[in-house]
Amino acid sequence: MKRAVLKLSVLLSVTILVSGCGLVSDLLFGPRASKHKSGTGEAPAAQVDFQFENSIQGYYKEAIQKDLGILSDAGLSGMDGSDILDISSFDNNSLRDWLSARVKYIIPQSFPRSYSTEKSGVSYPSDLFGALFDPAGSATMSNFGVGVYNSGKKARAVYSIWFNAAKVIVTSPRMGIVKIEDSLLTGRIVPGSSYLDDVNSYFRISTYFHEGRHSDGHGADTGLLHEVCPSGDYAGKSACDRYTNGPYSVARVLLSHFRDICKDCNKKEKSAIDLFIADNAARVTDNARQADPAPESVIYP
């Protein structure tokens, strides 16, 4: 297995946190006053619309909406990595469409891990399914929907959750229900920077896409979930991918493109991006294979 060289100069202070889901490197500095670097200093309007659970606090919404605005305004282009995301071109429109199809509902860390049974005795395309909820973990985000779907699949049932005043019936891993952890704004930022600075938005955007990939897949590959690392810095932890187009590869590609277009990034910020690129690359096992990301769905009798 490839290993990242996680040695940086005194520019960065890094702690590696291990989780079953989500990018997990943690740069230990909290949020500070904002200093936008893009455009006129104002966050551009978002063109990807996430729905927020009512209890999510405003500063989380502000940061996420600012991130989505960058995704719409970043000027991304080219072909490198488009095969990993299964898109024809690595451009803003394609990326917005990709993310919108896979991340839709944002729930807080306090959201209960419970659901209601809508229907029992249903059929699924196969008897194979990915892992259920991982009770451990300290990721900044996690894909709640795929856990509900796989739990229903195991029980041959269809489950639902209440999102604000609406019922969401989970019939596919691509329901796009994603949980943000309390550390979303502090868990991964460059030392001395604000959580609203563009470079820190890049890290969060890559995490949105990482979680979006968990909304894909079918059969044993439902959710393209992580596996235990056989060796290296994460040996014995469920923090690696057995897919060449899995969540860590998706995040790596996003970060590589953002690094290329970040003309205002200083040396410290580019070093931080390089660290995360290397860390994501190291999490793909040597025997990784290409997964078919087409999502399955429940078959009603």
Topology at a glance:
Blueprint: E1 14-16, E2 25-27, E3 51-52, H1 58-73, H2 82-85, H3 92-100, E4 105-107, E5 116-120, E6 141-143, H4 144-155, E7 157-163, E8 166-170, E9 177-180, H5 198-213, E10 227-228, E11 238-243, H6 247-261, H7 267-282, E12 284-289
Helix pairs in contact: 1-5, 5-6, 6-7
Structure, explained:
- With 301 residues, this protein is an alpha/beta fold.
- It has one domain.
- The chain is 29% helix and 16% strand.
- The chain has helices at residues 58-73, 82-85, 92-100, 144-155, 198-213, 247-261, 267-282; strands spanning 14-16, 25-27, 51-52, 105-107, 116-120, 141-143, 157-163, 166-170, 177-180, 227-228, 238-243, 284-289.
- The chain has a 4-stranded mixed β-sheet. The protein has a 3-stranded antiparallel β-sheet with strand order 5-7-8, with helices on one face. The chain has a 3-stranded mixed β-sheet with strand order 10-11-12.
- The longest helix is centred in the first third of the chain and has 16 residues, at 58-73.
- The chain is globular.
- Residues 1-46 and 133-138 have low confidence and may be disordered.
